[in-house]
Amino acid sequence: MSFCSNTVNTLRRAGVLSMLAGLMFYCVNANAALEIEITQGVEAGIPIAVVPFEWNGPGAPPHFVSDIVESDLKRSGRFDTIPRGDFLSNPHDHLQVNYKDWRLIKAEALVVGRMQRAGANQYQVEFRVFDVFKSKQLTGFRYNVPGKSLRKLAHQISDIVYEALTGERGAFDTRVAYVTLERSPTRTRYLLRVADSDGFGAVTILESKEPILSPAWSPDGERLAYVSFEQRRSMIFVQRLGDGKRDLVSSYQGVNGAPAWSPDGRTLAVVSSREGNAEIYTINLQNKQTRRLTNHIAIDTEPAFSPDGSSIVFTSDRAGRPQIYRMRMDGSGVQRLTFEGTYNARASYSPDGKRLTMVTNQGAGYRIGVFNLDSKGLLVITDTTLDESPSFAPNGAMILYATQQGGSGVLSAVSADGRVKQVLRFQKGDVREPAWSPYNRKL
Amino acid sequence: MRNKTSIFLVIILSLTVAACGGKKGVKDGDEEGVSTTALGDGTGGMGSALGAGGDLATNNKVYFEYDSASVTDESRLLIEAHAQDLLNKPGTTAVLEGHADERGTREYNLALAERRAISVAEIMVAYGVARDRMQTISYGEERPESLEHNESAWALNRRVVILR
Hints:
- The complex is a heterodimer.
- Chain A has helices at 2-13, 16-19, 65-75, 99-104, 150-166; strands spanning 34-40, 46-50, 54-56, 79-81, 109-117, 122-131, 136-146, 175-183, 188-196, 203-208, 212-217, 223-228, 235-240, 246-250, 256-261, 267-272, 279-284, 290-292, 300-305, 311-316, 323-328, 335-336, 343-349, 355-361, 366-372, 378-380, 388-392, 398-405, 408-415, 421-426, 430-436.
- Chain A is mainly beta.
- Chain A folds into two domains: 2-166, TolB, N-terminal domain (Rossmann fold, 3-Layer(aba) Sandwich), CATH 3.40.50.10070; 175-436, TolB, C-terminal domain (Neuraminidase, 6 Propeller).
- In chain A, the strands form seven sheets. In chain A, strands 2, 3, 4, 5, 6 and 7 form a six-stranded mixed sheet that branches. In chain A, strands 1-30-29-28-27 form a five-stranded antiparallel sheet, with no helix packed on it.
- In chain A, strand 9 and strand 10 form a beta hairpin.
- In chain A, helix 3 packs across helix 5.
- By secondary structure, chain B is α+β, with helices and mostly antiparallel strands.
- Chain B has a four-stranded mixed sheet with strand order 1-4-2-3.
- In chain B, strand 2 (94-98), helix 3 (106-126) and strand 3 (134-138) form a beta-alpha-beta unit.
- The chains are: A mainly beta, B alpha+beta.
- The interface between A and B is medium-sized, with 38 and 24 residues.
């Protein structure tokens, strides 16, 4: 991995990266669950040096926390990680830091730390973040965690570093849900998986020979609603991640699709065609009562709640082509929001409720757009042609979506301003239907 | 266009009814299935009217335009032949599987593909097939016939498959 980062950075420094901008360029890590491919360079990332944490102990630790932190920061697009080979010293605490060494290599920020064994399968990890220009420590913490929590801890450290340096909350300690399709001449297999936000630690929570789609996280991050065709037609299930138990919540005649959680986690908005046409309903998950919200001969689908729970946006082709509409929670006050483009669908809110991300076609293919609810402006932030399923990170900084590359589905993340893009290349199968989780609970 | 379609429909319906009328088997307890016989005054067989060809088991796909659930005149002939066959075989049923191409969102396509299956079912009903003899299922874009990503693949994937 460090070889890889070195290569990228050396090339970037040599000015070669811009020449390669139009080419496929990615790094392979044999142990990685995914490969990260920066498809669009970072112009204004904060130059940061992450010194490999000192390891005091026999053998190797289960995870090198500093490697994960460096990779997270790089992946965010907000940082330009300086290659380790350029470092003039390798400090591990504040007493060892010589700020001059870091000014010389143009680092603006510095992360140092230590790891050591603290008992049977228990580890002590400490880290500090420094502002090189101001020659001062910004923050620092020490932890005691079991080996299996090291990776999660590393993401939490990344979140702290990110917030200390950008002023915004990080979203590294989060998860993604997605569906992979493995197709061979002898079998077809759909897997619903949950992984860390960097693609590691993937766990399959459902396996089926039939399609799975539209995974949606509950606001507490403990359940997933999804559509499964396991009984040869679409039905909606809610599954608890902790114990794998699940409930069938919508299996009416016709289509059952597009589950979306209310912010309080008590209600699901779904699509059902039980009355002959795709309409949006809510289901109270406690008493299973349903309520019909739309009533139109057009297709009404893909509901999404506003973060304050006051309204629902949805896709409707009532004006001829799919466009985004908004209604109140009781289905009243329907208002069309999008007018640009021939196809706008699958909208969902940013965590602050001020923007929507959606699939948009303005004549050049299906791309990801960000719609500003105040200005009504629609910014197209991708340049590929079969982009789908966008969702905001819980901090609103990035959008995760699915696209096609080399004839296969891949996941990609783009900064909400479209400036930084990266492809997350899961190694097996056709990957689709990503959904970014809410914030995780802390360790 | 609309005129042409309706004249066409009348002819087809007449042919259908003529063909049905000759068979006692239509009275199979499927009351709705025989309700259209009142229209019947056509003559002649249906073989020549059917551009769709003979083998219904393999000639069972109705294709659609992009983001549309409208059945073309040509497809109407095929649907009519299947409707006729259902009427000829009382007690049999059909599954109408709706599909969409990969463009656009999966959930919209799930609804669109269902609308296509329902369009086909509604035409079958117009020809006299009882609605409860047909089951509509939408697979959205999940089961493409062609796995390629181009116009000709998409054209093949926008379909309703009539399974008997």
